[in-house]
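Folding Query — how this chain folds
Tokens — whole-number codes for backbone shape
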Amino acid sequence: MVVERPPRVLFWSGPFPPSVGGVQAAALHLLEGLCEHRIELEVIARRDRPELPERDTVAGYPVHRSPYYNALASHDAGRIVQTLHDIEELIERIQPDFLHLFTVGPNLFFVQKIRALASLPTIVTLHGELPKPMIQAPLLRNVLSRAKTIATCSEAVRRATIKIFPDLGNKIRAIPNGIPSAMDPVQPPPQHPRLLFLGRLAPEKGLDLAVRTLARLTDRFPDVRLTVAGQGPERPGAEALARALGVFDRVEFLGWVPPHDVPALLDASTLLLMPSRMEGLGIAAIEAAHRARPVVASRTGGLPEVIKDGITGLTVPPGDVPGLALAVGRLLAGPDLAAALGAAARRHVRSAFPVTSYADAYAALYRRHAETD
């Protein structure tokens, strides 16, 4: 009797828990979902902080943290060669059937240089629209050209990727991120209006737009407050803007918030404000919906796949601060509407973005590629 061996996957994700962000959450939820499947998987992740362990276990899978990002950034030939050697040794030990590049970036250099990786069947996941410098990089084109499947986190990213690489369209498919359903009871919204901004404080997330939106609401809603949960380079500018607009005392900057504290943070909020300039899908919007909180967001990237305008939340054109303020004001003045949108959002994401479908799709890809290569 022949016993089928589980697929052996080398899963390479640069950003990875315990750091926080949409990619990190997507990686964690996928690994947790894959525990239900017979998949042998080991992770390579970026080790860019000395306090992170070199070896770890996440969701039952071994994690190897490599300093490849810092080695490449240092332009130190000795460090780069040593890092190449260490990754080669790891691959020799694991003997993977194929490679899953869950993120693309500096790891592309090592994929091209390490012969054992360059010859492996590959799945690539794209979490957003590709920046122009990366699109023009031959390394990316080479890796995407030989990939068996190019998975995108949303239909919007799939369409954008096909527009850039039309000749690769037959192997580009959307696999929407999924997150576990919130099983604990949903709490009622707070008595006083509380807006929440949740995510990296990076230019594409639009924190400055959130502060400007708040400033437009204070006359009509004297008790309104904005909570900012996240860290990043935009914080000093946002603090200065809040002072200039006279709303600094209405903004609470929490900094980094552990993932397990996010549900309580959403429960303490009236709605989630996502004025993103770019967004691959919008994990924060899905998290808010699970807590039955409506989202007011920009109509960009994959956000309209999560937020159905007027049905599960409200959307406006990117950069439209007056539109954001009008939409937020509509929900603050109409708690029944906010509750109805939040309840509809919860139903929508539980059916459209279950973690089981997310993990099942990748497990099926792993098995198919393991069988054919």
Q: What stands out?
A: The chain has a mean pLDDT of 92.
